[in-house]
Design brief:
Helices cover 37% and strands 22% of the residues. By secondary structure, the protein is of the alpha/beta class. It is globular and about 45 Å long.
């Protein structure tokens, strides 16, 4: 199954969008839109905070894929996480995220990287890799979305430190079953983070899906 291509899957769209958000932030202090709303972001933060027995905030290395304005990492920094990295393929997004982090007095590392390419820059490995909507955007690429998704997932697998690391993904375009099917060659489901449900035509569904995966042991 392929999604219909959209401008949301193009770098030009995001560059224009973040250029506008930089102007708004400098003029009004508005950090811009948080994709899927703040509740989706806070659910992930809350889930991480509940993992205190296996997760140590001081040492856990966290990578946010398609970080945008960086507000997810700001939320983690506010909770005491310190080893935080955000990547995006939009230079304007990185510019905005760095400015917001500096104004919040947080030391967050932001890097320009395109994970849809076969050989992106080396970023190291991480204990937590987070994706909120980035896999969705990759899936909406008008050109070669299947190849882009394949490259993206291969890169995510390389970014995970080991089979105990977590890949946390939130999607509004793919159901949990679809994610499981698409990821099964690289990842296995660790758990599902509950999200709001709706009922339509007698069937129950979710507005967004949040799943925690682990890398399959080699």
């Amino acid at each position: 199954m392929e999604l219909e291509g959209s401008e949301l899957g193009t770098k030009a769209y995001w560059e224009t969008s973040y250029e506008r958000e930089i102007k708004n932030y400098k003029s009004h202090g508005d950090v811009g839109e948080i994709w899927f709303d703040e509740d989706s972001q806070q659910r992930i933060v809350d889930w991480l905070l509940k993992q205190q027995q296996t997760l140590h905030k001081q040492s856990a290395r966290v990578l946010d894929l398609g970080c945008g304005n960086g507000m997810f990492l700001i939320a983690l920094a506010n909770e005491g996480f310190i080893q935080l990295t955000g990547v995006d393929y939009s230079p304007k997004a990185i510019e905005l995220a760095r400015g917001i982090a500096q104004d919040h007095s947080h030391n967050i590392d932001y890097k320009l990287a395109d994970l849809t390419q076969k050989e992106p820059q080396s970023l190291g490995t991480f204990d937590i890799v987070h994706d909120k909507g980035t896999y969705d955007a990759v899936s909406l690429c008008p050109d070669n979305p299947k190849e882009m998704r394949t490259n993206y997932l291969d890169n995510v697998a390389r970014l995970l430190h080991d089979e105990h690391s977590w890949f946390i993904i939130t999607s509004c375009n793919w159901t949990e079953d679809e994610l499981l099917q698409s990821f099964e060659h690289l990842f296995e489901r660790h758990c599902t983070i509950p999200t709001p449900t709706f009922k339509f035509g007698g069937k129950v569904g979710n507005v967004v899906t949040s799943v925690v995966f682990k890398k399959r042991a080699v």
